[in-house]
Design a protein that fits this description.
By secondary structure, the protein is an all-alpha fold. The protein has helices at residues 2-6, 8-25, 28-38, 43-49, 56-67, 74-93, 97-108, 113-129, 134-163, 165-177, 180-183, 191-206, 210-219, 225-255, 260-288, 290-310, 314-342, 347-372, 378-396. The protein is globular and about 50 Å long. This is SET family sugar efflux transporter-like MFS transporter. Its main location: membrane.
């Protein structure tokens, strides 16, 4: 943490991620309750609403590929941030479910761009600085997002309890703009030096020649097969996480009768655990390899979903949140770094593929929710499904190894 805080660039991205975590976590947990309690839709329809973000993965990948050709990512971040802020306000003002669907389609397609660009900016900064412990720095910076999630759910719940769901969603639009402030203070990261450093590191790891790397840059402009396979791994694992974000509020508040403010405390437990787990995961990855740590995280995630599926009390949900926090700390703390090592010549594209897989899980979770949520055993069945998906992801992970160093296998 001392290294991160003492470096101006790392510190700026860390603060930005704290504010981004507050922004997202004050909004996302309230959406399912807003749809059910304010717009009066069924739990199954809540799952279908997630399909409004179906275009997000494609938009994210296209923008990510385009961003690697820009001299600076900051202008792109400002434009996207302003658009998403407007979308939050529009969602809070939606008079009917139909209008909410239109708003979700128009603005949800751009939801994953900002996160991908921030981590691409971090990757290029790490390469420019010649950072020897990239996994540790990346995971430590990523804890800023978790710290924001420790504050945002409580803040969002208090706003919803005091002002109503509509006002809480509209106010969260202001929160979208706050992460831009520390980023605007960063100097432009030069792409040429970042690519050169990245190529040097990759050549050292794989034994490839510079000419081979240069020739592969054009051929691999849309990414290698291991990168896309890793995207499938992330898609499977994070589909369960999207189910948790959508249906844990309903399970806790509507089914188990936990008070809304107490639910906010429950949600905030996981980010607090992540604050410790993420730097630890980064340190372990620098020592034992990214892949081994990622595999352990996937198995912990399966345990967390098993706890949610069998819970009938607050204690069971707490255990699930703890396991889930470790899972998220590993996959979201290290997954971007792993993807970028699989596609070293395009930090923005690799990060966009990772976050596109994450965005696509909103739609897949929506379909699963629509199919299973209204069944008599719907919610436990959904979390058992998430468990199976995590196990499948763990089985596929060992096959993603093209650009990893031997210590990461």
């Amino acid at each position: 943490m001392a290294r991160v805080w003492s470096h101006r660039g790392y510190r700026g991205i860390l603060i930005s991620l704290v504010l981004s975590g507050i922004s997202v976590s004050s909004y996302v947990p309230l959406m399912s309750l807003y749809l059910v309690q304010t717009l009066r839709v069924s739990e199954g329809v809540v799952g279908l609403f997630a399909l409004t973000s179906l275009a997000s993965p494609l938009v994210g990948i296209l923008v990510g590929r385009f961003s690697d050709r820009l001299s600076s990512r900051l202008r792109l971040l400002v434009v996207v941030g302003a658009w998403l802020a407007l979308g939050r306000v529009a969602m809070g003002l939606a008079p009917t479910f139909g209008v909410a669907v239109v708003v979700g389609i128009a603005f949800g397609a751009f939801a994953g761009i900002s996160a991908a660009q921030v981590f691409a900016l971090l990757r290029e900064l790490l390469e420019r600085e010649g950072e020897p412990r990239q996994a540790t720095v990346t995971s430590t910076v990523r804890t800023g997002y978790s710290l924001g999630w420790a504050v945002g759910p409580v803040l969002g719940s208090l706003l919803a309890a005091g002002l109503g769901y509509r006002t809480a969603l509209a106010v969260s639009g202001v929160f979208v703009l706050l992460p831009l402030i520390p980023l605007l203070q960063l100097r432009q990261v030069e792409k040429g030096s970042a690519w050169a450093s990245s190529n040097a590191q990759t050549n050292a790891e794989t034994g490839a020649s510079t000419s081979t790397q240069a020739g592969g840059r054009e051929r691999g402009s849309w990414g290698s097969r291991p990168l896309w396979l890793f995207a499938v791994v992330c898609f499977l694992a994070l589909t369960g996480e999207s189910l948790r974000l959508t249906y844990l509020p309903i399970l806790a508040v509507d089914r188990l009768g936990i008070p809304l403010w107490f639910f906010g405390v429950l949600v905030s437990v996981a980010p607090v655990v992540e604050l410790v787990a993420m730097p630890a995961a980064g340190a372990l990855a620098d020592r034992f390899g990214l892949k081994r740590v990622l595999l352990g995280g996937l198995l912990l995630g399966a345990g967390g979903f098993a706890a949610f599926a069998t819970s009938s009390s607050f204690v069971g949900l707490l255990v699930g949140q703890f396991c889930n926090a470790c899972f998220i700390a590993v996959l979201l703390g290290l997954g971007v770094s792993y993807a970028q090592r699989l596609h070293p010549n395009g930090a923005g594209f690799a990060a966009s593929v990772f976050f596109a897989a994450q965005s696509l899980t909103i739609a897949s979770a929506g379909l699963l929710g629509a199919a299973l949520a209204d069944r008599p055993a719907g919610l436990p069945e959904l979390f058992f499904t998430a468990l199976v998906l995590n196990v499948c992801a763990a089985v596929l992970l060992p096959f993603t190894s093209r650009a990893a160093a031997p210590s990461e296998l």
